[in-house]
TrEMBL record:
Organism field: Sander lucioperca (Pike-perch)
Superkingdom, natural source: Eukaryota
Biased composition (Basic residues): 238-256, 426-435
InterPro entries: Nepro, Nepro_N
An annotated GO BP: positive regulation of Notch signaling pathway
Comp. bias (Polar residues): 455-464
One Gene Ontology term, aspect cellular component: nucleus
Name of protein: Nucleolus and neural progenitor protein
Domain Nucleolus and neural progenitor protein-like N-terminal per the UniProt entry, residue ranges: 6-197
Gene name, Swiss-Prot/TrEMBL: nepro
Pfam families according to UniProt: NEPRO_N
Stretch list, region Disordered: 238-269, 422-467
Amino acid sequence: MAGEPWNRVNIAFPGAVSSVRVHFSSTTDASVKALLVENEKVLKLIRSEILQTEVRVLYELLYFLNNSSRGNKTFKGLKQVEQCINRLKSMKLDVALQELTDLCPKRIQRGLSIKAGECDVPSQPMLEWLSLKVLGAAQLMSCTLNRCSRAFTLSKQQMKWEEFIILNMVITSMVSRLWVIVRGILVSLSTLYQQLLELLREVANAQPMPFLTDFSLPADMAQFLAPSDARLLTKKPAHGPLARGHKYKQQRKKTSSVKGKNQGETREVKEDLGVAVERVIGPDADMKPFLKVFRDFSEGKSFPQKTHKADKKRKFKKQVREATTFTDMAAHLEEMIPWCKSQKMEKEKRLLSFLHLKCQRMKCLEAAGYNVQRRLRTFRQEACWASSPHGSVPTTCRPSAATRRHARLTTRLQTLRSRFKSSTGVKKKLLKRQRERTELSVSGLSGDDQRTRTTNEATSSQATGCDRQDDIDDIFASVGL
């Protein structure tokens, strides 16, 4: 396949003339007109803003995933889709088709050429070269369809594994749209190829200038493509990213129509669906049934699931209170934890799992012969609270780290409170002393008090002087003087 002339990015351009003058009739006019119409369809699809937008989204996704998902299979599938898009750009198919449009005569030229009987049309080498381009583009579109389907399958598989759900949703939607656009291009290329062959036969009969000597053009695009891709040219796709949804809708329509027919055969009652039925509730209407419905709704009678949960919790609490050993307690907890998980009671499951770990530890101590009856009574309270956690958390149910942190904070607060009280007492004593001194200085001392004070001071000074003199005499006497 690599050596085929159509499987090249740049097919050698023929050195012959691009246009020749041939006999122009109404049949040739119809062939040229149909060729221009199909050519315009392909150009619109290739140059459409929708395709360019999807290609830009593909490039942005690959740039975003380049470093983080190089080993991912979905990323590799997107890289293969990018390679097909880049090869289509490198082929410059739009440039070749635009050149074909320029070589074909316009509507006014065709009208004049029919009267004259002659007109300039693309030559045989030019048409054969364009046919090779179209064949290569069709094979490339077929390969792109397969790559898009593979990338879609890989991304869908990741979504089933719950990996990168939002990213894979973007990838699947983008690949699905690309698949639809590429299939439209493939179908348009098939019809364009048929019109090229018709004009080529007429030009080859008028001016034979063969360009392809070692390769014969296939008579139909379906013969050139693989059987799985050839089916896309003749009917709506029976497989692909969007086929399952379409098939499911068709089946639903068929089943609904069959059911309608069967019901029409069995029931022959005529119903006038066009008549409106007025339902008015007057002021005298009895509202008790409606109020009863809302009362039952508020009381939870319409929710049997809530009643089932309450019964299950009540049964568990009864089993916990009746448990005499930690072995029985562990069995009840192992039964309750999966039930909480199935009911999506995350908080209860987490608390009971924590208690189950404690129960396993206490079960080992119980097996070793230790007396754990007092701890079992406390554990019963913790298990009952964990099954319906309302209010403050019991102290025994807190984790050890949280308990130590709480005790540390309590000790620190008590220390700060005692310091504050002691500092407040000292300040009060100082203020009291200052107040007493101020009162004494303001009132002053009386005369008798002053005399008594001076007399006491003189007496004390004399006594001190005598004591000092006696002490000196004793010292000299001890020395022998």
